[in-house]
């Protein structure tokens, strides 16, 4: 089981300023011209503002979702605020800077959407936009997310188990892996149109899991966070969340799930196999070649002096997945 | 030449301009630290500060290196009086970059610092650039400069190596090579182009040197 974490500050949902109140307040101050000079200059650290704009990030329209709160996957850890979860994203289809996706993805069309489940299945499926949030019962789970860049967040995701979807498609016994593909639409995704914007990745973005990893009850297909549908920068309308693996395994804006008997490609593994493994399990004992993975910077509220660096746990604290890797050398299969 | 006759900056003008440069560079640094402390610098203030001070150092190194071609082209020889100051700010920004890394990312764990420098080439490259900048800053005082004589110029030519190391550190720190550093590498070529005569002379002197030795040997 994940080690219980007791924060020094105990906050409940009641302590959180309601988002609509927060936004109204901000809007009100803005109309009065009161958000001070520093706010006008803010914008995530564009040194000297040479490249890229410092414009305030627009807010995508998100809809409330109907869901239950999972009793099992709650936490007393401080959650990363909504504003930070939605403005600090690696989604190279919309730019390589972490503030780019929130700025460039707002016009992204997620309806209509088609998610296809095919390959080695008896019952190939196609989910349309409505089915993504209605076909399976949704539940909220608060998971830790550990990025390979050594920062981490605590996020209340809403979604359903990937296993439920795979079971509905009836996998053949020959299936061993699950391959995922992100939407390929250069007209909407500037990073797919230009190598410079998209970091030189060969699109579409692909990811993969072993079938037993995909069927694990922790593995989630997420359609929302903080009670509402995903904003485009977080992978709307549907994305993968595998909490014991580094964040880059959580492929965003999925259009295809294919069951196969071959180990599928994984975008970052193809690009730099010495730095990003296929398994990408969170592992404090295997350093990234350029930095240590022993600790992580937890992103919560507060400025520089409240920065918390905490030790990284094996499997990001989700010890229940350890049996999946029994007998494997996780230094080799990192 | 952009101007018909050389532009001279009088003492009061120099004073005003220098004050403005101080205000801008110190103010920007202070404001960014203030934003980091008050959580207005993006989701991860540590990363935000590292980016700001790192890119700031590179920008200031470029500024230092564009002062002498600018002084020639305008022409305005008095601009050279700003070079040392801007160079020292490049060091100040680099020092802030390093301190942010040491204090907020490594939490003052000095054992980890030395092992990271030893183990990670990209950290070593950045650290070398910082050490070079430190050497250039210490020797930037007039008294030391006079004492060093010809050696001073030789040492301060290291600023090119410093820029190269800083850019390598920047490129290496990112996940892909396709990013802003490419613009900076292009700008480096431009800066070197303005010094093509100097480079040519240096190259010729390098090639000429072994010649007399060869003659004596035969």
Low-confidence segments of chain B: none
Order of helices and strands of chain B: HHHHHHHHHHH
**Which value, in Å, is the CA radius of gyration of chain A?**
20 Å
How far apart the termini of chain A lie comes to 22 Å
- Give the integer mean of the pLDDT values of chain B: 93
Radius of gyration of chain B using CA atoms only: 20 Å
Give the CATH architecture of chain A: Alpha-Beta Complex
Order of helices and strands of chain A: HHEHHEEHEEHEHEHEEEEHEE
What's the average pLDDT of chain A? 89
> Per the principal axes of the C-alpha atoms, what is the gross shape of chain A?
globular
Approximate helicity band of chain B: over 70%
Count of DSSP strands of chain B: 0
* Assembly state of the chains shown: heterodimer
Given helix and strand content, the structural type of chain A is alpha+beta
Low-confidence stretches of chain A: 33-55
Instruction: Give the biggest beta sheet of chain B.
Output: none
What is the CATH level 1 assignment of chain A?
Alpha Beta
Whole-number total of structural domains of chain A: 1
Q: β content of chain B, as a range?
A: under 5%
Q: Biggest interface pair, residues each?
A: A-B, 45 and 47 residues
Describe this structure in words.
The complex is a heterodimer of chains A (334) and B (218). With 334 residues, chain A is α+β, with helices and mostly antiparallel strands. Chain A has one domain (20-325): Oxidoreductase, molybdopterin-binding domain (Sulfite Oxidase, Chain A, domain 2, Alpha-Beta Complex). Chain A is built from 9 helices and 13 strands. The radius of gyration of chain A is 20 Å and the shape is globular. The radius of gyration of chain B is 20 Å and the shape is globular. The longest helix of chain B has 29 residues, at 45-73. The model of chain B has no long low-confidence stretch (mean pLDDT 93). Chain B has helices at residues 11-37, 45-73, 83-105, 110-119, 121-138, 142-148, 150-156, 159-173, 181-193, 196-208, 210-217. At the A-B interface, helix 2 and helix 3 of A face helix 1, helix 2 and helix 4 of B.
């Amino acid at each position: 089981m994940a080690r219980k974490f007791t924060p020094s500050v105990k906050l409940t949902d009641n302590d959180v300023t309601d988002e609509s109140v927060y936004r109204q307040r901000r809007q009100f101050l803005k109309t009065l011209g009161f958000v001070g000079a520093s706010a006008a200059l803010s914008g995530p650290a564009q040194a000297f503002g040479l490249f890229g704009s410092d414009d305030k990030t627009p807010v995508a329209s998100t809809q409330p979702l109907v869901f239950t709160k999972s009793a099992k996957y709650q936490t007393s850890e401080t959650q990363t605020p909504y504003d930070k979860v939605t403005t600090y994203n690696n989604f190279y289809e919309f730019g390589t800077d972490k503030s780019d996706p929130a700025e460039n993805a707002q016009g992204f069309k997620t309806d209509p959407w088609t998610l296809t489940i095919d390959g080695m299945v008896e019952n190939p499926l196609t989910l349309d936009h409505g089915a993504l949030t209605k076909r399976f019962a949704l539940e909220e789970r608060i998971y830790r997310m550990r990025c390979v860049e050594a920062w981490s967040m605590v996020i209340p995701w809403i979604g359903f188990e990937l296993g439920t979807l795979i079971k509905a498609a009836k996998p053949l016994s020959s299936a061993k892996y699950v391959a995922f593909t992100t939407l390929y639409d250069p007209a909407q995704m500037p990073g797919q149109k230009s190598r410079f914007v998209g970091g030189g990745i060969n699109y579409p973005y692909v990811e993969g899991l072993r079938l037993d990893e995909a069927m694990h009850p922790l593995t989630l297909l997420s359609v929302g966070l903080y009670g509402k549908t995903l904003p485009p920068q977080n992978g709307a309308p549907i994305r993968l969340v595998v909490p014991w693996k580094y964040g880059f395994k959580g492929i965003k804006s999925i259009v295809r799930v294919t069951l196969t008997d071959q180990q599928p490609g994984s975008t970052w593994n193809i690009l730099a196999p010495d730095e990003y493994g296929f398994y990408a399990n969170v592992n404090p004992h295997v350093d990234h070649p350029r930095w240590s993975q022993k600790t992580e910077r937890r992103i919560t509220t507060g400025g520089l002096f409240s920065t918390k660096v905490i030790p990284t746990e094996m499997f990001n604290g989700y010890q229940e997945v350890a049996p999946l890797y029994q007998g494997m050398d996780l230094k080799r299969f990192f | 030449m952009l101007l018909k006759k050389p532009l001279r900056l009088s003492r009061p003008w120099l004073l005003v301009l220098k004050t403005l440069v101080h205000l801008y560079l110190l103010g920007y640094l202070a404001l960014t630290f203030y934003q980091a402390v008050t959580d207005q610098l993006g989701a991860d203030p540590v990363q935000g500060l590292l980016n700001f001070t790192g890119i700031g150092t590179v920008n200031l190194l470029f500024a230092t290196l564009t002062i002498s071609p600018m002084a020639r082209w305008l022409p305005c020889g008095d601009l050279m009086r700003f070079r040392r100051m801007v160079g020292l700010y490049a060091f100040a920004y680099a020092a802030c970059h390093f301190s942010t890394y040491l204090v907020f990312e490594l939490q003052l764990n000095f054992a980890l610092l030395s092992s990271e420098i030893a183990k990670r080439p990209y950290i070593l490259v950045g650290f070398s650039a910082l050490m070079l900048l430190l050497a250039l800053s210490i020797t930037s005082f007039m008294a030391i400069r006079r004492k060093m004589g010809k050696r001073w110029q030789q040492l301060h030519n290291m600023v090119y190596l410093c820029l190269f190391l800083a850019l390598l550190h920047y490129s290496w720190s990112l996940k892909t090579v396709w990013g802003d550093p490419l613009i900076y590498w292009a700008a480096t070529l431009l800066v070197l182009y303005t010094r093509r005569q100097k480079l040519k002379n240096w190259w010729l002197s390098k090639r000429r040197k072994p010649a007399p030795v060869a003659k004596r040997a035969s």
